[in-house]
Here is the input.
Amino acid sequence: MQRESMDYDVVVVGAGPAGLSAAIKLRQLAIEKEIGIAVCVLEKGSEVGAHIVSGAVFDTRALDELIRDWKEKGAPLNTPVTREEMHFYTSAKGSIKIPNRFVPAPMHNLGNYIVSLANVCRWLGAQAEALGVDIFTGFAAAEILYHEDGSIKGVATGDRGRNVDGSEKTGFEPGMELHAKYTLFAEGCRGHLGKQLIEKFGLDADSDPQHYGLGLKELWDIDPDKHEPGLVVHGAGWPLSEGDGSGGVFLYHADDNQVAVGLIVDLNYTNPNLSPYDEFQRIKHHPRIAKYLQGGRRVSYGARAITKGGLNSLPKMSMPGALLIGCDAGTLNVAKIKGTHTAMKSGMIAAETIVSAFESGDEGGSELVAYIENFKDSWAFQELRASRNFGAALHKWGVWMGGAWNFIEHNILAARLPITLRDRKSDHEQMAPASNSKPISYPKPDGKLSFDKLSSVFLSNTNHQQDQPCHLTLKDDAVPIATNLALYDAPEQRYCPAGVYEIVEQQGQPQLQINAQNCVHCKTCDIKDPTQNIVWLVPEGSGGPNYPNM
Amino acid sequence: MKVLVPIKRVVDFNIKVRVKADQSGIDLANLKMSMNPFCEIAVEEAVRLKEAGVAEEVIAVSIGESVCQEQLRAALALGADRAILVETNEQAQPLSIAKVLKAVVKKEAPELVILGKQAIDGDNNQTGQMLAALTGMPQGTFASKLKIADGKAHVTREVDGGLQAVALNLPAIVTTDLRLNEPRYASLPNIMKAKKKPMEVLTPAELGVQLKATVKVLKVELPAERTAGIIVESAAELVDKLKNEAKVI
Here is the structure.
């Protein structure tokens, strides 16, 4: 079938912080240098921000460089961090407050802002459009296009209007090819095209496996008397420690009597009985968290995987005709628990590299090796370098000894240690058989502080066009029962935060049922499936969550 | 033939809305907004008439804040030829909207006005009927089929218990029901073309209309939450509970 095509100088895949910053920087430079550079951004969500979920405490360093007058331009950064607390939860009731001077230096947040990253992206999208960027929302980049010489030619958007069996419905609209001199892949953590590129070009040949976390978040309207705008609370320990898991809790007091509460679960956990969703529900009952939420009302829910391998896991970011930017590569600074500023910076550097290539007569399709050099010269790289051991130390020695290492390395030695810790086992390889793992019994949700999965997914405003081909594919249909159920008691039922995977009985036989319409596009199944049998493909554009204010 | 299609910007149908703390309305901050689905069906029907050679021009019109241009651009991307925004920051109610539309009808003299039967935010189901009353044009509401022939609009209406066929003299007003058609997807090239199509911005005052609120919203609240059910042991217990607890028999 012949598809229509459109030509751009640069096509950006994904309207997150990295992609939008790259698009903005490209157009700023094009205007400044008076050269014509046509830029478009493809976004699979129904609008910019629809698929963005983040804490988020926002470090303005990249934004200060990108749009100096962001305040005048009305950027939604309304709540400066005013106070910080860090807790270690020893049990369902107990906790220790860590004195601020013992908190590793990168985790201090004064000077940062509590934001809704979805709203920041909506604002960045408007800035990009004002500079002449074409943003196409509701269009998913479904396929990578290659030139005959193997360099990247662009992407094709997915077809719209296919039946579940692949046949065309009335009103079928075929996908469209977008050709570009350079394509920037900015899909965020575990982008389904980024994953293909890493494999095809062997971009991770010299790096450790990527490591991931699953972030779950809720937004609450709370009692105004309990609200302290600018308060940042972080915690670790219980309840994840009970199931040999690790991760961290956050609770941020934003404006408007709202708090964002969430849990990040490290996806290198070994116990298949662990359920990140249920861990999140029960941490909200801890007195340190519950005291803010009691009497409040939950207004939103979302989940998204994050890349947290840091520098050691960072793949090569360039290939002929394309760059991998932001968390599609994995530029998050795990020591700061922040990725937005480094993702933005990686996009801005990509834009600068492309523009100087164009200026020297580059026609596209080359491998921009200068990008790696430029990135290495940036503060973003310095940050990643300084925090390269942070996550590995926690993985190796746990939260106390690893935390102590991080305190000594960052607060006393100022991150100048000439040692690099490595963590070479992929998260999906960590899963232990259910028979060797201790059972975890989760309390029933009380409907006040904790809730069941489906009522949570309801609040994420998730929808997919009915009757479309299932976007969660299995390499081998037998594996879910023969391996996953038999060995690991079907862990996809528990790690999926949206209730997509269910084992049901059919004619007396267990079967895996995939409720793809619930999918919140977090990508955890693609990451954590022990046999890597589940492959996340992009559904029809506009599908997925519609996160407001997340 | 000229077709006028009034459209409304509403909160997207996927969004679960929440009531503002002071119960004065729905909190719309940063929510995804879209074209009302029934209006989308109206646009699709008008574009199909144009593609069939029945209509020459399709004009989309909306009344509201300047952000309504997004939904007008969406209508242009689906195939409308030009758009009119009657810009106002005031909350316009059905009667005011119908009055504005009457003025637009006078200005443009369309032979057919196709509207959504209702908007999914207010669920009023009034504007089309009010416009018919104000203009004196015949109306075919809840259309599941529309055919233009012999200088008439032949409308199949979805009525309680069946279908009703009516023939309307032109110019006429048609409001769309869900089964009239399935709107197409806007393609990327059409989205690009839509950016260049003409968009006229007017004010109610320029059309000689003053917006007036004739309905006052006293309070908006969520429906009562459903309480958990119980499983009864026997039919006798069920009857007992229905009689003495629920008091429904």
Remarks:
- The first strand of chain A starts at residue 5 and ends at 13.
- The radius of gyration of chain A is 22 Å.
- Chain A is about 25% helix and 25% strand.
